[in-house]
Amino acid sequence: MDILHLTYFTEVARQKSFTKASQTLHVSQPSISKVIKTLENELNVLLLERSGKHVELTDAGYALFQRAQHVLLAMENLTAELSDIVGLKTGRLIIGLPPMIGSRFFPKVIGDFKKSYPGIELKLIEVGSKQIESSIEAGTLDLGVVAQTVENGVFDSFPIMKESLQVVLYPGHSLASQSQLSLHTLRNEPFILFRNDFSLYDAILSQCDQAGFMPNIVCQSSQWDFIAEMVSAKLGIALLPETICHELEPKRFQFVPLVDPIIPWNLAVVWQQNKYLSFAAREWIKFTKNFFQVSYDTEQKLKQKEFNNHTLI
What we know:
Helices cover 49% and strands 24% of the residues. It has ten helices and twelve strands. The strands form three sheets. Strands 3, 4, 5, 6, 7, 10, 11 and 12 form an eight-stranded mixed beta sheet that branches. A two-stranded antiparallel ribbon has the order 1-2. It has a two-stranded parallel ribbon with strand order 8-9. The radius of gyration is 24 Å and the shape is globular.
C-alpha cells in the first residue's frame, strides 16, 4: 500500500464513480481500477461494491476511507511544510468563490495579489457556499469565500463584509411604494432565488418558514444579474444584498429594505482548521485581510462623511 493507492481509492470513494475519479485525477479508468484491485488483493478485503457505473463502500472500504483521508492530509501538510523550509516561496492555491461574490469583489484583490506574488498560481472555482464548505473539508479547495459566517468548529475564518438583504421589485409593483417590508407581507409573491447550493437559499427558506409560509419559487439561478432581469420582466420578486442592489439600474428596479426579520448577508474567508497552511495560503490570508479591512475602513469614513453632510443640510 502506498500514497498513490490511497489517493486513487479515496477519490473513487468520494466520487462514488470510477469515471468521475478518472476525470478528476486525469488518469485512465483502467489504471485506477488496476490500482484499487491491487489494493484489495493486498489487504484481502473487498473495498468497493461495484454495480454498473455506480460504486458503494463496503464496511472495510468505509474504514479505510476514514483513515486514508487523515493519512493523505498529513502527507499534504508535510509536503507543504518542507517546501516552506527549503525556501520555495512559490505555490498554488485553489480558491472557491460563489459567482455573486467573485465578479463583484475579487478582481481587484486578485490582481493586486498577483503583482505582489507572481510566483503563486491562483485557481478560482465558482460554486455555491455550501459546495465550497464541503470541498474545503474534503481538501479539494484550499480556501474559500462564503456567505454567512461558518461557526461549526471545522473552519477558521475572518469577515470581509456585513450587509442585509433588500427586496427587489419592478417599478409599478403594488409594494414598490413601501418604505420597508416584512417577510410575511411577501407570502403571496412569486420568488426568484439563488440555487439551493447557495447558503442564501437556506437562509431565506428558513426565515419564510418561521414567518409561517413556504415561498412560491418560480425560478432559481446562480447569477444575480439573471435574477434581476427576471424581476425586471415582472416574473417575481428577489431578495438581494445591498451591494448587489447598488449595481442595478435604479430606473428599472425598486429596492425596499427587508425588516421583520432582517436577513444578514455576511461574507467570510474560510479555511480548514488544524491543517498546515502553506506559504501561499498564509500570504493570501494576510493580504486579503489587510485589503478588505482597508476597504471597510474607507467605506465607513465615506458613509460618515455623507451622514455629516446630510446633517449639515
